[in-house]
Amino acid sequence: MLSPPEAEAAIERRVPAAPQATLPLTDLSGRLLRQSIVAERDQPPFNRVSMDGVAIASSAWDRGLREFAIVGTQAAGAPQSCLPDPSACIEIMTGAVLPEGCDCVIPVERITNLGERIRVAGDVVAKPWMNVHRRGSDSLAGETLLMPGCVLGPAEVAIVASAGLATAEVAAEPRIMVISTGDELVEPGQPIRDWQIRRSNAYAVVAALQRRGYLQVAHDHLPDDLEVLRNRLRAHLDTHDVLVLSGGVSMGKFDFIPQVLAELGVETVFHKVAQRPGKPMWFGVRNPGKAVYALPGNPVSTLVSCIRYVIPGLAASLGMARTAPLQVVLGSDVNVPSDLSIFMPVTLAQDGSGRQVATPKPTRGSGDFVSLTGTDGFVELTAGPRTAQAGTLAPFYAW
Ligand code: AMP
Ligand code: MG
Q: Which of 29, 305, 364, 392 holds its CA 20 to 30 A away from the CA of 263?
């Protein structure tokens, strides 16, 4: 049986890449770039003035000149003007092209306007290229500014726009179908009998996905019926990139999921992980491009397995670099009784020296999702038998 890190690694190795999409600039935030972005022009594309003021030739200031006749105005967005006489100046705006014959900008705050002329304040020291953002000083035309695989934050989106592109090739958000299974489950809002159970897992999974920015998430419920499972899972595989199932993967007489998935051509990558809760966890792939996560049905098992496997699997399919989980300090001893790793719900708080301390909040079993309320996530404690000591570090996964 695989350990949780081995199961995660197997998912990362086998999970198919998410489809690509061409998206406009306003839809790029948080996406993974699938192309190179090459500079359209030098950046800045011309000697760009970076202060409002007057443009002069610093050689005139060197010769002792402190008053300059205003011979023109250069606004941002206007073609380059020319200083006809080195003892004169041109009024200039931030973002304008530095006029030909000028090499220095004196800020408006440092001059006195005398009508036709300006006087430079006595303590100004004019130097070549003062307040000028020189052409090509940031990057040169043809330079690669962004590589495939980079996550597009605000700065990266600005770079795409500055390269003159209205759209970019990115990893598309996968179409995800969350499917709960089980004859005992009844939809919230519908009447329920004493022997039935509310269908809660699918909503927990959808919430966990939405929280991480996956919004193309649909959900369905299927009975423990071989024929229905075959037909509906076949249809969902045709129309979605990722299926996240819950229930039906244990040893019960009506746990049909692995069998049906095999019939539909989904290859089993693994079935069972040495973990508690969630040992029956199943993962498989179908070429081209389909990933199927079948999570155990007990609500705590479903949620921890979703966080521990589906979330990193989706990130890997998008081509994101793996991010190591936060290491937190265990707040009290935890007994790990067997050769199964334990997912222990915890609350997190910062101690006096800024360390994150995780206080264990054990559930009364994998059906007891009510006691998860108020917890921040869980820590993973590697298999025993052993005691995980208070004060030692453990990887933390947020809900
Ligand atoms: P299973 O993995 O199908 O054997 O289900 C294990 C336990 O989890 C059973 O008690 C189920 O009733 C319960 N369960 C399964 N699926 C759900 C669900 N979607 N919502 C709430 N409980 C569920
Ligand atoms: Mg079931």
A: 305
Identify the CATH class of 48-133: mainly beta
Question: Which atom from ligand 1 is nearest to the alpha carbon of 249?
Answer: 2
Residue 277 in contact with ligand 1 by CB distance below 6 A: no
Q: How far is the CA of 182 from the centre of ligand 2 (A)?
A: 4
Burial of 111 (0-12, 13-18, 19+ CB in 10 A): buried
Query: Of 11, 12, 9, 4, which is closest to residue 274 (Cα–Cα)?
Result: 4
Residue 44 Cβ contacting ligand 1 at under 6 Å? no
Indicate which residue's Cα is closest to atom 19 of ligand 1. 201
Q: In which element (H, E) is residue 237 found?
A: helix 226-239
Q: Does ligand 1 lie within 6 Å of residue 182's CB atom?
A: yes
| Residues 158/26/319/244 CA torsion (nearest 10 deg) | 160
CATH code for the structural domain at 4-19+172-318: 3.40.980.10
Residue whose CB lies within 8 A of the most ligand 1 atoms, among 298, 364, 369, 370, for a mutation test: 298
Of ligand 1's listed atoms, the one at least distance from the Cα of 298 is 8
Instruction: Write the CATH number of the domain with boundaries 21-43+138-171.
Output: 3.90.105.10
User: How would you write the pLDDT of the chain (399 residues) with one tens digit per residue?
Assistant: 999 999 999 999 999 999 999 999 999 998 999 999 999 999 999 999 999 999 999 999 999 999 999 999 999 999 999 999 999 999 999 999 999 999 999 999 999 999 999 999 999 999 999 999 999 999 999 999 999 889 999 999 999 999 999 999 999 999 999 999 999 999 999 999 999 999 999 999 999 999 998 989 999 999 999 999 999 999 999 999 999 999 999 999 999 999 999 999 999 999 999 999 999 999 999 999 999 999 999 999 999 999 999 999 999 999 887 889 999 999 999 999 999 999 999 999 999 999 999 999 999 998 899 999 999 999 999 999 999 999 999 999 999
Q: Where are the domains of the chain?
A: 4-19+172-318, 21-43+138-171, 48-133, 326-398
- Residues 38 and 163 sit within 8 Å (Cβ to Cβ): yes
3-state DSSP assignment of residue 259: helix
Paired residues of 349 in beta bridges? 357
Ligand number with the minimum distance to the CA of 195? 1
